[in-house]
Write a structure and sequence with these properties.
Elements lengths: L19 H16 L3 H14 L4 H13 L3 H14 L4 H13 L3 H14 L4 H11 L4 H14 L4 H13 L3 H14 L3 H14 L2 H14 L4 H13 L3 H14 L3 H13 L3 H36 L3 H14 L4 H13 L3 H14 L11
Helix pairs in contact: 1-2, 2-3, 2-18, 3-4, 3-5, 4-5, 5-6, 5-7, 6-7, 7-8, 8-9, 9-10, 10-11, 11-12, 12-13, 13-14, 13-15, 14-15, 15-16, 16-17, 16-18, 17-18, 18-19
């Protein structure tokens, strides 16, 4: 729920890549870890794969997506640029780059790139959809026009209708927004749509309708942590303390984070459970500090990877040590330190670092090439 401050670094490496086959081995493992939801381990291996094969567009695009997930938007944009540079027709990477540019405030470039795609094929609805996304932070009227053009070309384009609803809501056309979301539900009943309708009703003060929509989202996707959290927040607004606490505890079971523990603490406090509230406030603060420490560690690790892939293994060690000092529970820092130590020929120290990484995150077992 917390976003890491953007930072930038070049992903172009300065040493000779050991080979595509080795990179593929690391990349395939990263993809598997991502599918399992082990995102920190996946990111660490994607950094490694990108160093081994810096001109592989698929690796660079996947790395960009992983970096974007932790909020490292400038770094993500650099990876997407590399992917597009290596394979100009790579539409997914091109779309990812456009959206990353929007997020870092480079909306003009994003819109220009999206318009160029539309010019190349003005009958492709997905290109108008991407243009609409790029315009959403620049000119809402233009975004609405692009989403409507997408729907003219492809009436069942659920994402276009969903994003049209979002921009309509932002421009205070709330009733139109809800109408578009209900049309989207009719053609493609997704839990995210129920969730968004629920949030809009909540902000309008229509708590009963909000609860109905959020429960519909949960019925379709029982592990939808955001829906459980928001349902708890709505029930808190309705002063239904017991039901709110139950929903928030379900959210915590799915994804424990500082904000959810804090909201649960407020609910318990209001319901008269002072001891329970105190414990939840303490856990909220512990998780907040842990998250901030891991975010600092991720920044130092990212900068260390840049240094390592530029050929300065010795210099990268200091940066990885700073990452570990920020959070001695951040497994990717130990893994990358192992790679740096290995390049310096310090095999015993490298094995120790890899071992520490694996203890913290079992997904980060050093591959055979490191043993």
């Amino acid at each position: 729920m917390l976003a890491l401050a953007c930072f930038g670094f070049s992903l172009v490496v300065g040493h000779t890549a050991p080979g595509q086959a080795q990179a593929k081995q690391v990349y395939d493992r990263a993809v598997q870890l991502e599918r399992e939801g082990n995102y920190p381990a996946s990111l660490s291996l994607l950094w490694e794969a990108a160093g081994l094969a810096p001109h592989d567009a698929d690796i660079q695009n996947r790395l960009g997506e992983a970096l974007e997930r932790i909020g490292a938007l400038d770094a993500a944009g650099a990876a997407y640029r590399m992917a597009v540079q290596e394979r100009p027709e790579f539409r997914k990477a091109s779309n990812n780059l456009i959206l990353a540019l929007v997020k870092v405030g480079k909306g003009t470039e994003a819109v220009d790139r999206a318009r160029a795609l539309v010019t190349d094929d003005p009958k492709d609805p997905d290109r108008y959809f991407t243009l609409g996304l790029a315009q959403s932070e620049q000119n809402i009227d233009d975004a609405i026009a692009s989403f409507r053009r997408t729907l003219d070309l492809a009436p069942r384009h659920t994402l276009a209708r969903y994003n049209l609803a979002l921009v309509l809501n932002r421009s205070d056309h709330v009733s139109e927004s809800i109408e578009e979301l209900k049309r989207a539900l009719a053609s493609d009943p997704q839990p995210q749509i129920h969730y968004t309708i629920g949030v809009i009703y909540w902000h309008q003060g229509n708590f009963d309708s909000a609860v109905t929509e959020l429960k519909a989202a949960i019925a379709q996707q029982p592990n939808y942590a955001d829906a459980h959290y928001t349902l708890g927040s709505v029930l808190k607004s309705r002063k239904d303390w017991k039901a709110a606490a139950d929903a928030l505890r379900r959210a915590i079971a799915l994804r424990p984070d500082s904000a959810t523990h804090y909201t649960l603490a407020q609910v318990l406090q209001q319901s008269g459970d002072k001891a329970g509230a105190k414990a939840e406030f303490a856990e909220s603060e512990r998780l907040r500090q842990r998250t901030e420490a891991d975010q600092r560690a991720s920044v130092w690790t990212a900068v260390g990877v840049e240094r390592l892939e530029a050929g300065d293994a010795a210099g990268s060690i200091d940066l990885f040590q700073r990452a570990v000092a920020a959070s001695d529970q951040y497994a990717p820092a130990f893994y990358q330190m192992g790679r740096a130590l290995q390049r310096l020929g310090k095999a015993p120290e490298a094995r120790e670092a890899f071992s520490r990484a694996a203890k913290l995150n079992p997904g980060l077992v050093a591959p055979a090439i490191h043993k």
